[in-house]
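Hi L.,

You mentioned the student needs an example of a multi-chain input paired with its predicted structure. This one should do, with 258 residues in total across all chains.
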Amino acid sequence: MPPDWDADSPELRRNLAELLESIKQDARQRKQPTVETARRWQSEIMRNLQADDPKYVGAFRGEAGLETVQVQVNGIFGVAAPEVADALGEFEQRLQAAVAYLDNLVPTADTSRGAGGGCIGCGRGGHSASRD
Amino acid sequence: MPRKPTTVRIDPLAQAALENLSRVLKRPMNQLVNEAVKDYVGRRSREVEHDLEATLTNLRAYRQRDPNFKGAIAAFVDAEARLGKEDPAEGKVVIGKLVNGQLVEERTIEGASPLQTEIRRLLNAS
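Structure written out for the whole complex:
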């Protein structure tokens, strides 16, 4: 049986390490982050792990089969499931504007941009994107 | 370059000491102030320059220590894997519909509890 998605396991560590390496490469190539990028990150992190429900993997709340999946953080509800798609669209615009601003500040050859692009985007949200 | 008059407020004790010094040295206060300011700016500029160089050296050393972010990635993976389960910002999944910020469970919206729904489904199937 695969390890639990939220447990510390060699699979999770391997998935995270591989993903961060790929994010570093994407950042150096100035690939624009998108909502679909986040979807892919979450799928890759969850590879060979046991999710609470397989339909949470590579999916956003509000999508088919997840219409009534809500999320709470410290007792406060996140965006209602039917509004997630719009909220993600707005977030994507703001994220891309912020990354474009930073890209202008940091020369392409500067390797420091790689870690920044990777770590900011691939935080806890990447691990639990289906719950966000 | 012509000298520009500038207004500064000097601490009364420093002002008195400056006046005394001016009398003793038989030099105008303006000259003493110019000399003091020039000395101070030169000394502080060297100190600030030294501080900036030290900061830049530290930053370069930091980048050279982990130029390919191997260490940063390893630290991130370790923190995420080891501490992720206790992450207070991790969301908790709840099933239902949100109406005006309140969770309304499916049974309320549909007018029947899950058990009632299941019984109805079984009855309809038979």
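You could point out the following to them. The two ends of chain B are 104 Å apart (CA to CA). Residues 8-87 of chain B form one domain.

Best wishes,
N.
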